TrEMBL record:
Pfam families: Abhydrolase_1
Annotated positions for site Important for acyl-CoA specificity: 318
Record's protein name: Homoserine O-succinyltransferase
Listed EC numbers: 2.3.1.46
Highest taxon listed in the record's lineage: Bacteria
Annotated SUPFAM superfamilies: alpha/beta-Hydrolases (SSF53474)
GO molecular function: homoserine O-acetyltransferase activity; homoserine O-succinyltransferase activity
Biological source species: Giesbergeria anulus
Subunit: Homodimer.
Length: 375
């Protein structure tokens, strides 16, 4: 049974310096909290979100059907991250389109909608913004930071940017950087958006249009990478939409997988912001903590002092188990406390969001261990 969640907002008038050399001021961060902060302020867990998610991590909104948080199976009373014991915080990242200041908001320096002029943000920038919000909530140290995919990159970055503020890091289905194939997928998706005639160089708001065609294609490309070949074949195979009747058309939908992808693309184009998609995929591309160390990940992770749990999934080819093992090796090179699990699951990258009993049991056991530190 889900609980009622309530979004909250904090305004930050002071400028936040960004990795690019730019800065952003007078910005707002949307967030939600679940559970209660204990007297020692030692039970806080930050959950970092992936590309198309938000601060709405768990619970439901009052009076809204189908409004469950994106990780509601993981977080809540009696769930693996038990809000009867932990104070859980979800924060919507800068540049998103779900409540925090983003490209569709007004630039205080110009009085105009940011659009394409919204500054490029990085994983490190998001972590710095999250740290400011935690300061305002009175949370100086996190019992854990938890994230999957791009959220896992943020969790890893927390241990490097603020090593003294993180006791545990749980990094799920993630990587220390994107490989060339992943960057290529992101670039093709971005090209689909920026070449849409309705994009208008990122200032489509002024024209009263949305580059839905580009967003649809971007989502279709992304969705293919989230699923495994096994899942696609089991769910759709070569099933035709109209039985055995072929239309012999290059334009019509023939196969069930085509229908599914178009449905996902249509749905996405109705709620996601095109400039946000460009910003977040570029943040994914840029993340590479080893860059400043000549590509040596072991050197890069020497700053981390947290204890780690890393989880990967056997059929995840977008963030393969090999990428998690790179992080594990680098941490072991530095004699850090690290646990690692590779779960044999058929669901591809999306497995980190699903109810695999072994996965849920693992996370539950790890957070039981964390809870004993402040019991």
């Amino acid at each position: 049974m889900s609980f009622i969640a309530t979004p909250e907002f904090l305004h930050f008038p002071q400028a936040l310096p960004l990795q690019s050399g730019a800065s952003i001021r007078d910005y707002t961060l949307a967030y939600e909290t679940y559970g209660s902060l204990n007297a020692e302020r030692s039970n806080a867990v930050l959950v970092c979100h992936a590309l198309n998610a938000s601060h709405h991590v768990a619970g439901v909104y009052a009076g809204q059907d189908k409004s469950e948080g994106w990780w509601d199976n993981m977080i809540g009373p009696g769930k693996p991250v038990d809000t009867n014991r932990f104070f859980v915080i979800g924060i919507n990242n800068l540049g998103s389109c779900f409540g925090s200041t983003g490209p569709m908001h007004t630039n205080p320096d110009t009085g105009q909608v940011y659009g394409a002029d919204f500054p490029v943000v990085t994983v490190e920038d998001w972590v710095n913004a999250q740290a400011r919000l935690l300061d305002r909530l009175g949370v100086q140290q996190l019992a854990a930071v938890l994230g999957g995919s791009l959220g896992g990159m943020q969790a890893l970055s927390w241990t490097l940017q603020y090593p003294d503020r993180v006791r545990h890091a749980v990094v799920v289905a993630s990587a220390p950087n994107l490989n060339a194939e992943n960057i290529a997928f992101n670039e093709v998706a971005r090209r689909a958006i920026v070449t849409d005639p309705d994009f208008h160089g990122g200032h489509f708001y002024q024209h009263g249009v949305v580059p839905k065609r580009g967003l649809r294609i971007a989502r279709m490309i992304g969705h293919i990478t989230y699923l495994s070949d096994d899942v696609m074949n089991a769910k759709f195979g070569r099933q035709l939409r109209e039985g055995l009747n072929l239309k012999y058309s290059t334009q019509d939908i023939e196969f069930q997988i085509e229908s599914y992808l178009r449905y996902q693309g249509d749905k996405f184009s109705e709620y996601f912001d095109a400039n946000t998609y460009l910003l977040i995929t570029r943040a994914l591309d840029y993340f590479d903590p080893a860059r400043a160390f000549g590509g040596d990940l072991s050197q890069a992770l020497a700053r981390a002092t947290a204890q780690f749990l890393l989880v990967s999934f056997s059929t995840d080819w977008r963030f393969s188990p090999q990428r998690s093992r790179e992080i594990v090796k680098a941490l072991l090179d530095n004699r850090r406390d690290v646990s690692y699990a590779e779960i044999d699951a058929p669901h591809g990258h999306d497995a980190f969001l699903l109810d695999d009993a072994r996965y849920m049991g693992l996370i539950s056991a790890y957070f039981d261990r964390i809870a004993k530190e402040f019991a």
